[in-house]
Amino acid sequence: MADKPPVPVVCAIMVRDGLIMLARRPLDKKLGGLWEFPGGKVEPGEAPEAALHRELREELGCVVVVTQALPPFVHAYEWGSIELIPFLCALDPGSPEPHPHEHTELVWAEPARLRGYPLAPADVPLLAALEGQLP
Fold first, then answer.
1. Under CATH, which number does the domain 7-130 receive?
2. What's this model's pTM, rounded to 2 decimal places?
3. Contact status, residue 85 vs residue 10, Cβ threshold 8 Å
């Protein structure tokens, strides 16, 4: 039996005033209690950037401006693989303040402190990719 292709998942590396937003996953979900860059699954036929905007409206009630697409990569979990498609973003000037509709907590953290948060394993490689990418 062939392995299933990785599930495409988008995430937002939201930057504001030199800080980066992390969102904490609910305890009753996969990877519960871990921190992540917010986002979610890309629906069939949906463009990754459109999925990012949809997921952030649903999960955080906010609107972002994509400033840069970062290279996607595959991460294998025990239950299957994901293709993580990261985007550097800023809050749209007219956007409401992000609110954790599906997460338990949000934090704006200094880039140097991101490694101090227990991150979802797929998000950890993004820390290295971010070095030199942030203003």
1. 3.90.79.10
2. 0.93
3. yes
Task: Tell me the C-alpha to C-alpha distance, in Å, between residue 64 and each of 12, 52, 70, 96, 113.
Answer: 9, 9, 16, 10, 23
51: left (phi over 0), alpha (psi -120 to 50) or beta: alpha
Mind giving me the DSSP string for 44-74?
TT--HHHHHHHHHHHHHS--EEEEEEPPPEE
Domain boundaries, the chain: 7-130
pLDDT tens-digit profile of 77-118? 999 999 999 999 999 999 999 999 999 999 999 998 999 999
125: which DSSP letter?
H
Strands 80-91 and 7-16: parallel
> Which of these, 39, 20, 49, lies nearest to 127 by C-alpha position?
20
CA proximity to 85, closest of 48, 53, 129: 48
Q: Which residue type does 29 have?
A: K
Structure tokens at 12: 């937002």
